[in-house]
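Researcher: Here's a chain I'd like modeled. Treat it as a single chain, no partners, no ligands.
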Amino acid sequence: MRQLIYLREFIDRGINARDRMRCGALGRFHRQGGNALLVNGLELNSNDWVLDGGGYLGRWTEEVVIRYGARSVIVEAHPHFAANLRKRYLMNDRVEVIEGALGGASGNIVFSTRGDSSTIIPSTVAGETVSVQLVDIKALIGERFSSGLGCLKLNVEGAEYEVLERLISARLAARIKSILVQFHRNVADYEQRRSVISARLLETHNVVFEFPFVWELWRVK
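Model: Modeled as a single isolated chain. Structure tokens:
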């Protein structure tokens, strides 16, 4: 067992070193702290709620709940990942799992299941599809977080554009203390849409860090 632990630590160190040597925004992200940046300094406490859009394996929620004592609602569209999250947090009353795809409207939508790249965005890449519930971010904020949200984390494979556009148009962004988002390049006009979203967010938030199309964190003014 000890040998396996040492091997895992050796592999992790190798992966981290490789990531730090990357060029561009991804390399800068890892050299300046990597995934630790996604949890450090969120300014949360045990009274805060966080919304984990694209929960995947639940690691971000786990770190936030342990470190800050915050409560989390995870929205995960992939049926397999959602089922695993429900099992993982079955005995944890500070975490709730909603099986659905976070978006800018309600209804049902075709969802492409491609592991950690699963998405509601139409794609030419072959893969299985399922019909999933579309969770309107405006309705969810209004129903569950009317008094405010400690952090909105978005890793939703392209749906972040419509989610943020919906929040901004509904004048709800200012209710969210921190917005942690990974923008993707799998939608039309992604650069222009990101630029417009960023300009609008600057009206209510300051940039804490920004690694374009990797991760960025915004904090309310």
